[in-house]
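Researcher: I'd like a structural prediction for the single chain below. Treat it as a standalone chain; there are no partners to consider.
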Amino acid sequence: MKQIKVKGILVGLSLLVAGSLVAQKHEKCTCKINGLERSYTMYLPAGLKTEAPLVFVLHGYGGKADPRPTMDAVADKNGFAVCYPQGLKDGRGKTCWNVGYPFQADMKVNDVDALCKMAKIVQKKFDLSSKNTFLCGMSNGGEMCYLLAYSKQHTFAALAPVAGLTMVWMYQQLDGPSPIPMFEIHGTKDHTSEWTGDLSNNGGWGAYMPVPVAVNYWVAKNRCLEEKTDTLPVKNKANGHYVITHKYISGIHGNEVWLYEVVNGPHSWANDDLNTEEEIWKFFSKYLR
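Model: Treating it as a single chain, here is the predicted structure.
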């Protein structure tokens, strides 16, 4: 009897471990949105609860729905699902998000609408929370965060662009319909998405605003009353970078706007300096309902 019992336990443990490994794999999915096939990669931590939070991570220009950088470890630790959507190709043959760059003029896809619809599909398919859905993105994905903020969407509860820009056309033609929590991480030596902006469109991406000015729009929109600044320790002191945190607090509905100024930092996810994914989740988790 003793041998049978032990064997049963071992078999049960083996099944449990096998189930966990299966649950933790990336699952590639497709769906039809507005007549177009869209694809995304899902990550569901083992033991994920029903109605768990959902975080979207958008790639940069020419990127893939390939979880690098990855939110997976932070998702395991904090119990949320991750969706890595794939952008469609523009006229240059590059995968992207349509944010109104000059060379995207012939691109008719509405990625604001597509991402909001994709979120609803993912929420239903995997039994995830419609209230606790968040979105972050790198570079072109960061621009998409700003476009979503300026658009009339109620799908994403908070947004976190990394090395993202506010295009001048967004600021001049769109009016953010309501306050929304916003968190930007940006290097001051980013020569792709210039910290000081590019109002003359020297880089070819279209005219865009200086990062502090763009963020301050959302500080005002959220009616934040205070600013708290600090300097964070960085992973690699030898690279000459340091991070100044600007946290604008006491906003309407408890909203906050954060700006992490990576001094001397390049165009990157800032993982050489920060635990970027953990900082993003720290911000998003303030708005769990």
